Every structure is written in structure tokens, then in C-alpha cells.
Amino acid sequence: MTAAAERLARLRVSLAASGLDAMLVSSLPNVRYLTGFSGSNGLVVVTPATCLLLTDFRYATQVKHEVAEGVRTVIESSSLWTRLWAELQQLPGTKVIAFETAHVSHQDAARFLDASSDGSRWLWRPAVNLVEVLRESKDDDELRRIREAVRIAEHALAATLPQVGPGMTELEVAGRLELALRSAGSEGFPFETIIASGARSALPHARASRQPIARGDLLLVDFGAIHAGYCSDLTRTFVVGAPPTARQLEIHTAVREANGSASALVRAGMRGRDADALARDYIHRLGFGEAFGHSLGHGIGLEVHEAPRLAKTAESPLPAGAVVTIEPGIYIEGWGGVRIEDDVVLGTDGPEVLTSFTRELLQL
Ligand code: ZN
Ligand code: ZN
Q: Residues 234, 307: one domain?
């Protein structure tokens, strides 16, 4: 069975288990996962026997190269949604249809629900995460893509660091890193590159700014690459233009050790909250518990933030084959922050850390 056929088969099992005759997939990463289609406009309908992809004229050639066998493609030149109703009429035995409540506009959902209430032939059922759950465990092809996205990111970081010094702005560093990512083969940036220096490094999601980097500043760099649709996500924290102070070294070491022990101890089958605790308890014992205000990590794949979550509130077990980030941090307002983020595959025999860039506190 091809990877696409396997994914459709797994989705069909969960549709049957939920009493659904069909599912309308409108989330583009889910469309890509199920059909291979990477365009920006597409709707997919999956029934027990068929898989239909609707897209527009711009993608008529692309679909021939991308779309998996067994998926019927319809090119529609005016409205995908109008065409959808026409196509659904042609699918016999389709009554109860799931739609992705997190990925449909209120306007479109209102159309489904109105259509359900007036005795129409379809009953629309809101569904959450039916495809996202399937995406948690990566197959070999997905793992290859993520490994390459990690390799590109690390190569770009190594090429950028020798160019960084005091006086450069955060935006300049971001620009050089993004050029290096593109040059190394990244298709894009999974999120806005975070370059935060000095006290701004205490803002966990700082945007790069026009602030010049000062001698002795911490510099937090959080970025990723995209290869064949799949993301990597990594963070390192450096010190610029001077040896680290004792305080910088102390906090960096605490984060590095929390990262190292969580990366070594995280396991498939563990609840997300227990994985989170691997780093959180350690940081808490050192007296920095209040300064680690975000969760430990998240899945990566076609999206840079996807299931599963490694968080205090995550009750679900982490599935084998998931690729997750391990990203503890300590942030002290007005002083600065340190985060170290790695990407880890949860293998059946234990974790494998994909990121290999040094975690030492490098002086740039
Ligand atoms: Zn990150
Ligand atoms: Zn992350």
C-alpha cells in the first residue's frame, strides 16, 4: 500500500468508528497529508470508497505531479464550494458528513448547518482533529523530510554565526540567517525568525527588532527550515562579543541540563504532562520554576506547531513515531532569557535527538 493509501485507510477506519459516511477536509496541511497536493486552494472529500480533491485552474499541472494515486481531482474555475455541493450529489450513500470545525469559516459552517436543518440530504457533523491525530506518528518518508529540514537549519546556523557581532541589529541577523536558510535549500520559514538580544531575550516570542546587539548581550535565536513541506524548529542562545558572566553561565547551564535530561528521558507512551515535568521539575528545583512560563514542547511535521503537546495540561500519551520539540527556557524580565530547543523522534526503542548543533554557550 502506498503511504497515501495507508493514510486514507486509517482515516476511513476512524470515520467508520464515528458513524460518519464522509469527511470534508479543508485544512491545507490535512489536504496535503492525505493527497500530496501542496497548493493554496483545495477541498477534499473522503468517503469509504473515494477520495475527491477539488482545486482551481492554477494547479491543473501541479496536481498531475503531486496527487497520489486513487485520488480523483476536479479542476473548478469558479467556486470550489458551489462545485462541492454538485459533487456531493454524485456520491451515493453519503448522508452524515464531518467537517473540520477548526478550519472552516463561520460563514461556510452556517451554510452546512442551515442545509442540515431544512431536511436536506446531508447531515453535517463538526469534527475535531480526526486527521491531526493520524499525523502525529510519522512514517519513514516524513522522518526523512524532517531530518533534512533539521540538517538545513543547522547548516544555515553554522554559516550565519561567524557573521554576527556587536552593533548588528536583530533584524540584520534575522536577514542573514534567512538568506543562509534559503541558500541551504529551505523552501521557506516555518514561523517568523526570532532574534532577541539583551533584555529582549526574556520575551519568549520576541520578533526581531531594530535594536543593535550590545557587547555582552545574550542572543536568543529560534528558527527553522522547511523541506518537502516538513518543518524543523530549533533554538540556541549565545553571548555576543564578551565571555559569559557567571549569571549567564548559571542560567544557561540550568536550561541545558533541563533540555538534556528531558531529551534523554522522554518516551513514547508517556503522557504529555509527564514529559513536560521532566524539565519543569528540574528547573523548579533550581529555583527558576516561575521563570519557565511556557510548555516544554510540541509536535512538528507539516506544521511547526502540531499535536502532540508536551504541556502541564496534556493528558494524552505521546505516540511512537511522533517528532516533538524539547524547549525549556528561563526568562528573567529586564535581564534576559535562555532557551534551548531540540527536535526529538519518539522511537519505539527510545528517543532520538535529531538536532546535533552544540548546546554549549558559544561566544560570538
Ligand atoms: Zn522554536
Ligand atoms: Zn518550538
A: yes
